[in-house]
Amino acid sequence: MLSRTALLEYIASNYAVEAEYPWKKFPRYAVFRHLGSRKWFCLIADVDKQKIGLNGDGKIDLLNLKCPPELIDSLRQAKGFLPAYHMNKTHWLSIVLDGSVPYSEIFELLDISFRLTQ
Questions:
Q1: Long-range contacts, 111-115 (Cβ 8 Å, 24+)
Q2: Does the pTM of the predicted model rise above 0.85?
Q3: CA 89, CA 99: separation in Å to the nearest integer?
């Protein structure tokens, strides 16, 4: 399972940006932006499982990324992918960070999101 810490380290080392925590009400919601344009390319949020249609109590980490719509349509058929949480569902996708999506695929999708938001 990809931990939040490992994901934060990957983003910092590959994109040279640090997490921003803009909401006091949601202190674990981490936003990542391009240095120049300040556009978001990634959001990590801990969300109640029931709010996103998952069984069980408690929170789970989600990763929101921008992707091409045709890729989103196919990915949402697979385990671990959901319609984007609080984002445009045509252009953004949520990945449940529960181990169901391999690291390599998450990192590849992060790269796509970074390029699409430049």
A1: 111/14, 112/65, 112/66, 112/67, 112/68, 112/71, 113/41, 113/42, 113/65, 113/66, 113/67, 114/15, 114/34, 114/41, 114/42
A2: yes
A3: 22
| Residue carrying structure tokens 């994109």 | 15
CATH 3.90.1150.30 is held by the domain 4-116: yes
Mean pLDDT of 24-50: 94
Eight-state DSSP code of residue 102: -
Whole-number Å distance between alpha carbons of 17 and 10: 10
Q: Where are the domains of the chain?
A: 4-116
Q: Which two tokens stand for residue 42?
A: 């990634």
pLDDT at position 21: 96
**Residues 62/47, Cβ–Cβ less than 8 Å:** yes
- The DSSP bridge partners found for residue 81 are 95
| Structure confidence by residue, pLDDT tens digits, 94-117 | 999 999 999 999 999 999 999 999
Encoded tokens for 72: 């989103």
23 forms beta bridges with none
